[in-house]
């Protein structure tokens, strides 16, 4: 039964061993990945990792040196017109006409996607409402804030209700309110059936919206899976930090008796314990300490996340 369901999942994008070089610099070093119909797929990596290059390669905007890319089961170069009408693209750099108003910008894109007449007008209205810009539809774009321009850029990319939407760092430089609006819109569009490919260097955004994530560094995919899978595969310890009112050094005797304690250190009244991944021991440790009258002032458990995974895999922080 399970096998059947797995086979039914359509791969909407298939990238196989793609290599892209600029002069002698390998910017994509043999990237392979598949994206399933209906998912929000995140591409996470620091600046310069190759996210935009990979996205532009999939979109047929950039030629590559070797490998293959299929989108909606087809080769872009041979079916460009057909594929273009089914995809939307929000580029990293905002691309809108500053001297036109919002409605004319979105209408321009709608026409390019083949919409006409009443259908065009309806779809433009829907896209502007969806991005929260309908009330400002007659305003010149040059009067818009950065966040509004970003949202307009998105309206232009979704006017034809694409089956697949590519978004390249769509929240860079926007205010928190626009950012939340953008993330919420992506969730809604996805629920309505759009597959989304989303690049960012913010792991919080990936955690908020993505079903699966590929982590990229120096032109390579270094991990791929759901967030839970990546944490399970790559993180093998949990850090518990306790601050005592006094006698931290003596608490070590209690800690030593527990299995699964990998290491610990005491600094003034702060005890830091590294445990193997089984964090069910944490309540037991606390119980013992309290029983033995240690007075705990603060405690914190460092929960593993994508940042920890990235650090584990590369030895550096995402935004160094
Ligand atoms: N047109 C270009 N010519 C030469 N090098 C480029 C060009 N575009 C991108 N690069 C290089 O390719 C690498 C990946 O860039 P990019 O895909 O933009 O990364 P990201 O989107 O992850 O920030 C970087 O080292 C960048 O300097
Ligand atoms: Mg980029």
UniProtKB/TrEMBL annotation:
Keywords: ATP-binding, Nucleotide-binding. GO terms for molecular function: ATP binding; ATP hydrolysis activity. InterPro entries: AAA+_ATPase (IPR003593), ABC_transporter-like_ATP-bd (IPR003439), ABC_transporter-like_CS (IPR017871), P-loop_NTPase (IPR027417). Residues 13-243 form the ABC transporter domain. SUPFAM superfamilies: P-loop containing nucleoside triphosphate hydrolases. The keyword Isomerase does not apply. PROSITE patterns: ABC_TRANSPORTER_1, ABC_TRANSPORTER_2. Coiled coil: none annotated. PANTHER family: LINEARMYCIN RESISTANCE ATP-BINDING PROTEIN LNRL. This is ABC transporter ATP-binding protein. It comes from Paenibacillus chitinolyticus.
């Amino acid at each position: 039964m399970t096998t059947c369901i797995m086979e039914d999942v359509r791969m909407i994008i298939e990238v196989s061993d793609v290599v892209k070089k600029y002069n002698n610099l390998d910017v994509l070093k043999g990237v392979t990945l598949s994206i399933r119909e209906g998912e929000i797929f995140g591409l996470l990596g620091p600046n310069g990792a190759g996210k935009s290059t990979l996205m532009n390669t999939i979109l047929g905007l950039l030629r590559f040196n070797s490998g293959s890319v299929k989108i909606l089961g087809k080769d872009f170069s041979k079916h460009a017109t057909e594929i273009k009408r089914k995809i939307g693209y929000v580029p990293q750099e905002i691309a809108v006409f500053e001297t036109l108003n919002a409605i004319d910008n979105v209408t321009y894109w709608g026409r390019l996607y083949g919409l006409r007449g009443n259908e065009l007008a309806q779809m433009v209205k829907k896209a502007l409402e969806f991005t929260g810009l309908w009330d400002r539809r007659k305003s010149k774009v040059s009067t818009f804030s950065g966040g509004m321009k970003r949202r307009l850029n998105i309206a232009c990319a979704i006017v034809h209700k694409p089956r697949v939407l590519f978004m390249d760092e769509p929240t860079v430089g926007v205010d928190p309110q626009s950012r939340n609006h953008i993330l919420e819109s992506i969730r809604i569009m996805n629920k309505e059936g759009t597959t989304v490919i989303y690049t960012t260097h913010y792991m919080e955004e990936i955690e908020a919206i993505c079903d699966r994530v590929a982590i990229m560094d120096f032109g390579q995919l270094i991990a791929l899976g759901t967030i839970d899978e990546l944490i399970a595969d790559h993180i093998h310890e949990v850090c518990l930090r306790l601050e005592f009112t006094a006698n931290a050094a003596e608490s070590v005797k209690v800690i030593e008796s527990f299995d699964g304690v990998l290491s610990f250190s005491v600094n003034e009244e702060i005890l830091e314990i590294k445990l193997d991944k089984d964090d069910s021991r944490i309540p037991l440790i606390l119980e013992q300490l309290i029983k033995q009258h240690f007075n705990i002032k603060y405690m914190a458990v460092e929960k593993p996340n994508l940042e920890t995974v990235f650090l584990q895999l590369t030895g550096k922080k995402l935004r160094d």
